[in-house]
Amino acid sequence: MSVGSDPYSEAWSTIAWDGKNKLLAANLHFDRFERHSRRLGFDLPNDFSKKVFTQLSGMKFSESPIVTSQQPPYLVKVGVTSKGEISLIPRINKPWPDILTAITVAAPQWNSKIRGTKHGDWKPYLDARDLALENNADISLLVENEVVIDGDRCMPILLDIDGFAYHPRIDEGALDSITLEQIKNDLEKAGIPVRPARITIPLILRAKEMIVIGSGMGIQSLGFIDGRKIGTPRGKLYDVTMSCWLEKLSSAWQTLEDLS
C-alpha cells in the first residue's frame, strides 16, 4: 500500500497469522476483499485465496511473539492492486495497556464508494494513529458532526444504559469489522444485543462501558476519550466479548484446505 496514492488502486486487509500456514477467519477476510474490490471498481485475481496462501507458505519470519494468548502472535497485511498484484507484509503483533485512552480527530472525507473500504489512500487513518501517539494516547476515534465513525485501527463498541451494545454504522463510513462478524452471534447468545447506531458524544458519555476490537488488538477496554472517563472499564461488555473472542482465537484458524 503506497500512502497518498489513488484510493481505487488497491484493497487490503490486516489478518491475524499464526506464523506458519494459518490465518484467522480467512474466509471472512477474503469475502471482504470481494466486497471492497468490487466497490473500488476492480476484480480480484483468479484463485486469489490460493495465491495468498502460496505466498504465505514461502514467507520467512523468525521474530518471537511478544503478546499474550489474548492476541494473535503475528499479523500479515495482504494487499491486492487493481492490476492484480498481490503483496504480503508480515509483522509481529504488539501488546496494549490494560485500559486504553483515545483522542478524537476529524474523519476523512471520501465519497460513498470509498468510505467503509480498506483502500489505497489510507494516509488519514495513519495520520490519526500518529496524532494519538503524539498526544500520549493509544488510539484515535474518527468523528464527523459529533458522531464517531470509526477507530484508526479498530471498531469502537459501547454498552449503553439500555443494555444494548452499539457500534458505528457501516452506511456512515465505518469499516465492516471482521472481528465483530466473528463474535456478534455469540454476544447475542450471551445476552448482549448488538446493533449499529449513531455513536454520538452524548451516547458515549452516558455509556456503561466502551471497548475497541480488531484483528490484531483483539478486545481492549477503552477508559478515556479526550481526557474524559467513559463508564467503568473492564466490565461486563469486556468480559463477555473477551470470552467470545478467546473461543474464536482458539478455533477459527484456517488453512487453504479449510476454505474448500
Strand count, sense and closure of the main sheet?
10 strands, mixed
Average pLDDT reading: 96
Helical run tally: 6
| DSSP summary, beta strand count | 15
**CATH topology (level 3) name of the largest domain:** D-amino Acid Aminotransferase, Chain A, domain 2
Going by CATH, what is the homologous superfamily of the largest domain?
A: D-amino Acid Aminotransferase, subunit A, domain 2
Helix share, percent: 25-40%
What characteristic shape results from the CA principal axes?
A: globular
- Return the CATH class of the largest domain: Alpha Beta
Q: Measured on Cα atoms, how large is the radius of gyration? A: 18 Å
The percentage of residues in β strands lies in: 25-35%
The secondary-structure class comes to alpha+beta
Architecture per CATH nomenclature, i.e. the level-2 architecture of the largest domain: Alpha-Beta Barrel
Could you give the distance between the termini?
Answer: 29 Å
Q: Which regions are unreliable across 5 or more consecutive residues at pLDDT < 50?
A: none
List the secondary-structure elements in sequence, H or E.
EEHHEEEHEEEEHEEHEEEHE
Total domain units: 2
